[in-house]
Amino acid sequence: MSAIVIHADSKSNKILSALAKKLGGKVLSINDSQYEDIALGALMDREKTGNIVSRDKVMKKLAEK
Fold this sequence. Notes:
3 helices, elongated, mainly alpha, 60% helix
């Protein structure tokens, strides 16, 4: 199973949704907040290093901002 996410205006979304349904695909509508969550998760997966950082170092870095 695979999926694509297309972020477009509402008119385009209706057309693309209808096409996907005609082609036998399952269409799920998501709001902007859900889209941002997916994008952030993908970015986090892409940038994952496997390194472990202590809570103290994270809090210190956050306090610098």
